[in-house]
Amino acid sequence: MSETCQDCGSPYEEVYRVPDEVWRQISPKASEGDGLGGLLCLHCAEVRAWQKGITLYWEAAIGNFPSIVAVEDYIRLMLSGRR
């Protein structure tokens, strides 16, 4: 089963997690509701983040979402200003 990117229109099957604080800045629906809606392929998510001065780092896992530890580490890195 795939989703369709709301920027480029391409189908994608990757499942990934972005901290809510970051997603609100890059979401294609950032101005709607709580800013957490929208679908982006990995490439478009990276492009939108780059345009905002954010570098995304990905963690891979088989049959599982990336660990909450990695997400927490990423948030600490972003808050420290050491991008």
Itemize the secondary structure elements and their pairings:
Layout: E1 3-4, E2 11-12, H1 20-26, H2 42-51, H3 68-80
Antiparallel strand pairs: 1-2
Helix and strand element order: EEHHH
The radius of gyration over CA amounts to 13 Å
- Average pLDDT for all residues: 82
Work out the number of β strands. 2
The oligomerization state is single chain
Helix count equals 3
Q: Name the strands of the widest sheet in spatial order.
A: 1-2
Characterise this structure.
The structure is a single chain. The protein is mainly α and 83 residues long. It has one domain. The protein is built from 3 helices and 2 strands; from the N terminus they run E-E-H-H-H. It has a two-stranded antiparallel sheet. The mean pLDDT is 82.
Task: Give a brief rundown of this model.
The chain contains 3 helices and 2 strands; from the N terminus they run E-E-H-H-H.
Offer a few descriptive terms.
3 helices; two-stranded antiparallel ribbon; about 80 residues; mainly alpha; about 5% strand
